[in-house]
Amino acid sequence: MRLNEGWLEDARRVPSPHCDCRPDDESPSLLVVHNISLPPGEFGGPWIDALFTGTLDPHAHPFFAEIVHLRVSAHCLIRRDGEVVQYVPFNKRAWHAGVSCYQQRERCNDFSIGIELEGTDTLAYTEAQYQQLANVTRALIEYYPAIADNMTGHSDIAPERKTDPGPAFDWAKFRALVAAQPDKERP
Predict the structure, then answer these.
(1) H/E run at residue 113
(2) What is the predicted pLDDT for the residue at 181?
(3) So where are the chain's domains?
(4) Is 66 annotated in the active site?
(5) Crossing angle, helix 171-179 and helix 127-143, to 10 degrees?
(6) CB contact at 8 A, 174 and 130
(7) Three-state SS string across the chain, please?
(8) How far apart are CA 33 and CA 140, in angstroms?
(9) Which residues of the chain fall below pLDDT 50?
(10) DSSP run (H or E) holding 177
(11) So what family is this one in (predicted)?
């Protein structure tokens, strides 16, 4: 995977209006892993794209009426089949973390990249999702090396409010995949 002006070349682009400039053009130094499913516990469909672009139909599902007012986004979503969707370029601030703190530094959106996995806290993530998350992370580390030592979950930066990516996320597996060389580079 390669980045071009903050965008992944291989990702499907769905630009979100829910972003802005990072303060002082700060370079990202933290990766935050999230999960999302809309409606809760259901996968597929256009609903995550609609939420992140501010076009969610509050009448399409009873739950949507509760969240239609939210102005949120993430940099990327990795769907169950491994498709990568990018909403915000990495050099911009996506609105994914909310009230948050990492290593005594508040406002994590200012210095982080948020990646959503289509899933729930308790359902195992797919192999395709782990592979793509590792691929995206390796690409990010090439541009933003500090991320290599700063990868965490939403639950770790907002423990009073959030539980994702949850106990179903295998951090050891993810970190091992990031550290491994991609197949095409192996002898």
Answers:
(1) strand 112-118
(2) 73
(3) 3-180
(4) no
(5) 50
(6) yes
(7) CCEECCEECCCEECCCCCEEECHHHCCCCEEEEEEECCCCCCCCCCHHHHHHHCCCCCCCCCCHHHHCCCCCCCCEEECCCCCEEECCCCCEEECCCCCCEECCEECHHHCEEEEEEECCCCCCCCHHHHHHHHHHHHHHHHHCHHHHHCEEEHHHHCCCCCCCCCCCCCHHHHHHHHHCCCHHHCC
(8) 13
(9) 185-187
(10) helix 171-179
(11) Belongs to the N-acetylmuramoyl-L-alanine amidase 2 family.
Per-residue pLDDT, 139: 97
CB 77 within 8 A of CB 118: yes
13-45: buried (b, 16+ CB within 10 Å) or exposed (e) per residue? ebebebbeebeeeeebbbbbbbbbbbeeeebee
Catalytic residue among 116, 118, 142, 185, which?
Answer: 116
Q: What is the CATH class of 3-180?
A: alpha beta
Amino acid code (one letter) for 42: E
Give, for 52, the enclosing helix (H) or strand (E): helix 47-53
